[in-house]
Amino acid sequence: MSKDPNFIPDGSLALYEDVISALHVDWEPHQGQIKIGQAVFRDAITSIFVQCGRKFGKTEIILYILWRWAQSNPGSSCYYISPFQKQSKEIVWANRRVQTFGPPRWLHSINNTELRLNFENGSFIKCDGSDNFEAYRGIEPHLLIMEEYKDHRPEFMEAMRPNLSVFNAPVVYIGTPPEEDDHFYWKDAEEHKTKEGRFFYEAPTWDNPHISKAWLEEEKKRLYDRGEGDVWEREYGAKRVKGGANKVFPMLSQSIVKPHDHVMNEIYKDRKKLQFILWADPAAASCFAVLFVAINPYTKKLYFLDEIYEKDQARMTVKVIGSEIIAKRTELYSGRDAEWRQGYDEAATWFASEMLDVFDEYFEPTQKMKTDKATGLSQIKDILLDGKAVLSDRCVNLYKEMDHYRKDKSGKIPKVNDHLIDDFRYILHAVDYAVRETKEDKDRDESIEQNGRFRKIGHDFRDRDDNGFRQEDELLS
């Protein structure tokens, strides 16, 4: 079969002109679609990979390629393969998109049982699914379209690949990229980027001029606000988002991290109404983690002030860690009215006993039986989405744990590197945290903030107590 750059089979200019003019009567490709068509028809590339976003217009360019090839090359076997035969019916057959894309006069018959269009010139277009891979051993195609390639059965190409060499058939792999980092899709994509004679095109949704830019901006904002920025980048931007699908906290942003002095200054005027709480996840071998938090019970805002993240086993003693806890607690908030609520993972009763014996410090146990992990993680997501969390830049390991917290291949969350996240969950459970501010809480808070009768000197002058006297042992910045 002849494939010159202008794709005029057998030198038939009349046939070429008839095909082009007929297919473009009711449809004109946009610039992104033109690039794909040129790769197939002008450049005669036999392996084409299109990584595209939703609503890019992939189905239209696919149908154009199928019809143009079938009519321009008499006797051609053209295959449209989606992941499943049932899916092919829904995408292009039941709605009659493939049957009506080109002129009816070119067709000899339509076989609804086999999902096959038979052309007058002996060509045909066959729609099927990769789940029917056993039927394609020995088939010799002239053109192969692989729709939504990421969801295809790998066995299909294993069965089909040897058959492509008979007519040097072009193959178009097209669809949105997958979530998984280790998906077979990425290997094929990289080969098309690097190997000579192959074509790779990254086609974001906004390459389609017919998609409303205002709608795209709204959708982008909606997804990012939900913490699903990876979905936007992958399914609309056609980007590879490493780890995005498995991240437990995809909404986490560096913007919540503030300089420590900034955080302390922000909480200073409200210190008398804040709940100060610290929680310990003791360990004797892996990591001893302690989290220091201030919570505004009215606005529901959480300020993560500091952390202890000790991995040196020689330092994982109550004497060392206990001294550090007391020192940090004193630095963060101390004074006549300073009250810290203190807790620990109930599995480490030795820690609570020794803290009481050595430092005369009481730590309450968390109640794991009443603490549902999934609920706690969901609460953390809501807190991040609602902008209720502020992290001091001292909380390096808390941010790192949250940023690297990922599900495994089975969708489960491994019990690893989550010590401060556990402290976070225990604290939420201990204070019976609800991310939404109640009307009663809001009204009470506004009274304190706006009604002069409730204001104290300490609200406005950080170096004086509520009676106007200077204080040296209050909150340190």
Describe the structure in your own words.
The protein has 477 residues and is of the alpha/beta class. It has 2 domains: 9-211, P-loop containing nucleotide triphosphate hydrolases (Rossmann fold, 3-Layer(aba) Sandwich); 254-444, Nucleotidyltransferase, domain 5 (2-Layer Sandwich), CATH 3.30.420.280. Helices cover 37% and strands 17% of the residues. The chain contains 17 helices and 15 strands. It has helices at 13-23, 31-42, 58-72, 85-93, 97-100, 154-164, 184-194, 213-225, 229-235, 260-268, 318-332, 349-359, 373-385, 396-403, 419-430, 439-450, 457-460, and strands at 47-52, 77-82, 107-111, 116-119, 124-129, 143-147, 171-175, 199-203, 257-258, 275-281, 288-295, 302-310, 340-344, 364-365, 389-392. The strands form 2 sheets. Strands 3-4-5-2-6-7-1-8 form an 8-stranded mixed beta sheet, with helices on both faces. Strand 11 and strand 12 form a beta hairpin. Helix 1 runs antiparallel to helix 3 and helix 2 packs parallel to helix 3 (58-72). It is elongated, with a radius of gyration of 32 Å. Mean pLDDT is 86; it is low at 1-9, 448-464 and 466-477.
Short account of what is shown:
The protein has 17 helices and 15 strands. With 477 residues, the chain is of the alpha/beta class. Helix 2 (31-42) runs parallel beside helix 3, helix 11 (318-332) crosses helix 12 (349-359) and helix 13 packs across helix 15.
- Cα-based radius of gyration, to the nearest Å: 32 Å
The count of strands amounts to 15
| Morphology call | elongated
Q: What is the number of helices?
A: 17
Low-pLDDT sequence parts: 1-9, 448-464, 466-477
Arithmetic mean pLDDT: 86
Q: How much strand content do the residues show?
A: 15-25%
Derived structural class: alpha/beta
**CATH architecture name of the largest domain:** 3-Layer(aba) Sandwich
Strand order of the largest sheet: 3-4-5-2-6-7-1-8
Number of domains: 2
Name of the CATH homologous superfamily of the largest domain: P-loop containing nucleotide triphosphate hydrolases
CATH class of the largest domain: Alpha Beta
